[in-house]
Amino acid sequence: MRIVAFILAILGGLLAAALGVTWLSDASELQDQIALAEAAGISIDSMITAAYLLIAALFLGITGGVLALMRKGKIAAPVLIGAAVLPAIYEPKSLVFSFILIIAGLFALGAKPKP
User: Fold this and answer.
1) Could you tell me if residue 52 is inside a domain?
2) Structural domains counted in the chain
C-alpha cells in the first residue's frame, strides 16, 4: 500500500503541477483579454491562485509520498488530500488532474507503521 501511495503521490503531484504551469502560462499570454474580462466584472484571480496552489501540490505530493513510504500514513494522508482540496476550493476544475492525490492519500492511510 505504501509503495502504491508513493507512486500515486508523485504522479498526482506532477499532473497537478503541469496543470498549474499551463494555467499560469495561459494567463500570461492572454493578459490583455484578462484585463477586459476583469473590466466586465469576471474575476480570473481564483484561477491564478489555484494555479499557484497546484504547483505547490507537486512539493506536497512528493512530501506526502515520502512520508507514506516511511510508513507515516496518518501524517501523509492529510498532506496528500489537502494538496488536492486546497486548489479545488478556488477552482473546482483542478480536481480533474489532482484527484490522484486524494487516492494516494487514501492508500497512505493503509500504510502500516513499523512494529
Assistant:
1) yes
2) 1
pTM of the model: 0.87
pLDDT in tens, 3-18: 999 999 999 999 999 9
| pLDDT tens by residue, 40-67 | 766 678 889 999 999 999 999 999 999 9
- Print the domain residue range for 15: 2-109
115 within some domain: no
Cβ-proximal residues to 64 (8 Å cutoff; 6+ apart), any chain: 5, 9, 76, 77, 79, 80, 83, 101, 104, 105, 108
**69 belongs to a structural domain:** yes
Q: Please state, in angstroms and rounded to a whole number, the distance separating the CA atoms of residues 80 and 78.
A: 5
